[in-house]
Write the structure tokens for this entry.
Amino acid sequence: MLAFRPIPPFNNTVQYAALAPAIEAAVREVLASGQYIGGAQVQAFEQEFAAYNGSAQAIACHSGTDALVLALRALGIGPGDEVITVPFTFFATVEAVYLVGAQPVLVDVEPHTFNLNPAAVAAAVTPRTKAILPVHLFGRSAAMDAVGAIADKYGLFVIEDCAQATGALYPHNLQKVGSGPHFGCFSFYPTKNLGACGDGGLITTTDADLAQRVRELREHGSPRRYYHTAVGYNSRLDALQAAILRIKLPHLDTWIAQRQAIARRYTALLADIPGLVVPADGVGHTWNQYVVRILGDRRDAVQTALQEQGIRTIVYYPLPVHFQAACTDLGLAPGGFPVAEALAQEVLALPMFPELTDGDVVAVAAALREILLG
């Protein structure tokens, strides 16, 4: 039976329609200014994001991937160094470690949060370890109190992958993710909680010297024009994207609250279905995705059945990092990370965006119930 209407996994057009007059006015202002790279719009967005996030410094860049690379480079991490991170994440997390010449060291994730397991982190530290790279997956903060304690014990840097978690909170102190002492790395890809109309990224830090290092690296390693102290990158946020993000940022907490309400509704409708595990809630969870687990080997069939009813879902992620062809050098056999490997076979992201109607949530839940119990 076809759902009441097709339900997409995300929809950026409704949000744009609501803000179109302000966005279009901001874009026209930038176009008329002739300042398309850097300038006042980018500087203002950096200041406004830093204030929103409770971070001393914010440095905009081209993408979330670039943010990770710039953070690693600014800390001097490279060949011979190890960075501890997770196998259940978007590939960019590990890709950034490779791109600076360092070695990714993977640890398994927790089955209830999908985030890195702190006990596994502690066991993975070696004399070559230079940093921990936790991922705040799907909008929920990793256990940063435990991660911070491990980092302090061994003198390690912490680089937070905040790509899916803009506005999320650390449960232990209710501060925003990315406001820690080293680096937070954000993405403004259009489907993120705070999405641009194209690529965009940003790095936060409390350290002014590290911030300056990032600023130089994003501009070809240049502390001032035509003088270069390092081989850097061309990784700048366009003024057009900064102007759009400035319009959107004041609405972010409202959108997060709407996502949280939708997540609570999903959980209330789905929690009693055998064979389905709803995601664990948590303080400050921003629900960039609402990801259920379909136990056993039914996930793909369930996804197909939902598609036939007009309900589109996404699998984040069908292949853990250590199974990727690009990572065969890690020499990691199947079975090494049982939680991540099980999740890759079972997870399914249901439609989730702030403007999703209650009728759509009910339709998705009803379809899932019928498919799983039928």
